[in-house]
Each structure stands twice: as structure tokens, then as C-alpha cells.
Amino acid sequence: MTADPLPLDGVTVVALEQAVAAPLATRHLADLGARVIKIERIGEGDFARHYDRAVRGLASHFVWLNRGKESVALDLKSPAGVDLARRLVARADVFVQNAAPGAVERLGLGAADLLARHPRLVVAGITGYGTGGPLRDRKAYDMLVQAEAGMISVTGTPETATKTGVPSADIAAGLYTSQAVLAALFRRERTGRGAAVDVSMFDATVEWLGHQMYVWLYSGQQVPRMGLSHAAIAPYNAYPTADGQTLIGVQNDRGWRALVCDVFDRPDLADHPHLASNVLRVAHREECDRVVSDETRRFRTAELDARLAAAGVPAAQVNDMAGLVAHPQLAARDRWRRVDTPAGLVEAVLPPMSFRDVELPMGPVPELGAHTKAVLAELGVDEADIDRLIAEGVAGCPRDVPVSQPELPIA
Question: How far apart are CA 247 and CA 240, in angstroms?
Fold first, then answer.
């Protein structure tokens, strides 16, 4: 690694954010080297700080989503607090928010107002269902969006529909937001012009359902819930071994021949009249799964895994979180680092995007209001006025936090 600049060195992001979608977007920007200043409510902060106490007394969601940020606690119910927020945004390159529809406009932080005053600013807003339409003002938690967007209809087993085990709608919106911000910054380098970017959790989730949506649009068929299997591919499932199970996914007919000839030593199955092509295997899925299961049972898991790998047949093991943490792929590639938090050092995995010339930073997880005084001083507020603002409850720092205030509604 060299001392080359980080990709977003010199970029300042101000975030009015809570929960998952916007914090994930800005954490990725922080990972890439941006300075991210997170505005939080005095006394409570981002409500994700209180989801659980799993990480040495800290909330697991907050630790995951907020490393490398600075926390400034402000009372946005007060004119003085709003003025400070506006002054922060005026100095920024990017403003990201996931407040409920109309909330930032009431604060004078809506995209139209901000771009009129700061035409180079990139303003990104995340909503649940978009800035218009009949669901515009509806609450939009991850499970609800997964349901409205149809994701739950294709997730789970034939008997039971489920949401995904991770907040897919939130994550999708966060990733598209960070991508859009990067694109807007790149365009600004060429044109000098900022941008207003809108991303909805609903639209982001709909994008992920392209395959299932097109099947319905042009065949009139609902893609069924398949558990670990796949509606359009076979064999694609968990198959029993002599001492466990293995996941096998064969996506083409070459893979089928490799599986039956090189792994199972059953070349007679390659041209089986019900199994020779993927279309046939899907049409005769039960028979296909039965034939594959009969063969996989002959092997212990480790032996079968080795044979599958040698033949180039895609396969995997189902890990739980203990298996993930101990996974040799993470250890062999030196993916673990330690991140500082208000509760001490904790383990974390490097960001998924790796630059070969520079390691992306993994800054501390901030205590609520930890940077209030320093950031206000940058705005030109002198020490006496900072102390007065804290005493009046306009601003907060770790040892000066009054009782919790009503939350700013979040989409």
C-alpha cells in the first residue's frame, strides 16, 4: 500500500439520517475517504443507537453503519439549531437525508432551497415510496417495503413467505444512494453543477425483482417461493451427504455433464432423456433432485466438496454466523481490522471494495455529540457561545446531554 490519496479525500458530507438506508450510504462514502458529519438529536441520537446492546453495550446496527463519522448533536426544533445545521450544509459537498416527506423542507434544507443557495451541492434524499404517489406519506420500514414491492412473495419456502434475513430494501436504497452521489460528484467535476438525487426504498427493491417481474409481465406466471432452490435452474438446492449436506448449483448443461461424469462417475446420466438439458431438468425437478441426492449420499461432505471443486461445479456450505466469523476466506485474505468505539476496540471486516494502492479507512464509531464542539468551532462559533448553546439545549456533547427530544420523523 502507498500513501496515495483516498478516493474521496477533501469531500465533506453532512447527513441528517437514522436507521439503515442513509447511514449505510454515508458509511460507504466515509469508507472511501469522505468526511461525514452526522447530525443527531440531543439526548437520543440516531434511534439505531438503541436497537440492542450486543456490541459491548452498543447497538450492533449503529456500530455496523456509523464508523468513520463525526457526531454533532443539535436541536432542530430550535431556530438556532436549524441555523447551525444550515451553516454546516453550506460548507459541504454533499447533503444526505432520510427524513420523512416534508421534514427537511420545513427546516429550509429541501433540495430546491439548498441548490438555489449552493448550486454545486449534491443533495440526496432517501424516501420510503418516492416523492409522489399514493404511498408518499406512508411509514416505510424495511419489512413493509419488501411486502409492497413483492419481495416477500418470492422469498421463503412454498409453505411460508418470509422477509429476507437482512434489511434488503434498506441496503438496496443505501447502495443506490452512494452510487448516485458518486456519479453526481463526478459530473460536477466536469460541469461545476450540483444535483438533487432521489432514491426510494420501494424503487430500489423493485429493481432487484427484475427477473420475477419480467416473468409475470410476459408469461403471466408468479415465480414461486423455492426455499434454497431456483425456479429457472436445476439442480440448484441443498443435497444430502453421508454426514451432512452440500449446496450445488448447476447453471448450464456443461455443468450438468461435469457433475454427473466427473463428480459422480455416472456418464450414463449425461444424456438421460429427462435430464439432458436445463429445460428438461426444471420440468422434471423432483426426479432431478432425487437422482442428484442418490449420488451425493455416497460421499462424505469434505470428499464431495473436493470433487465438486476439482470438476469446477459450483458448490457451497451453509454457514451460520459462527462459521462466517471463522471463515478461512476472510482470515487468509487478512480482511479483519479493529475499529475504535466508545466501548473500546471491536472487530470489523474491511469494506467490500478494495483499492490496490491504498487501504480504505475504518474510523471510530462516534459517541453521541462527540464532535459538536470541534465542528461548531470550525463554523466560527467561539468557545463561550458553544458553552451557551450547550447550556440552552441547542447543541449537545457527551457530558452535556439533556433528556431525549421528540424524534424527527423518518421515512
Answer: 9
Alpha carbon distances (Å) from 324 to 20, 124, 320, 376: 22, 34, 6, 42
Q: Which residues pair with 246 in a beta bridge?
A: 239
pTM of the shown model: 0.89
Active site residue 170: yes
Q: Are residues 291 and 180 in the same domain?
A: no
Residue 370 covered by a domain: yes
The predicted structure's pLDDT at residue 399: 65
Quick check: 183 pLDDT over 90? yes
Residues 6+ apart with CB under 8 A from 3: 358
pLDDT tens readout for residues 47-79: 999 999 999 999 999 999 999 999 999 999 999
Domain extent for 94: 12-209+350-396
In a domain, 125, yes or no: yes
Residue of 142, 170, 203, 289 marked active site? 170
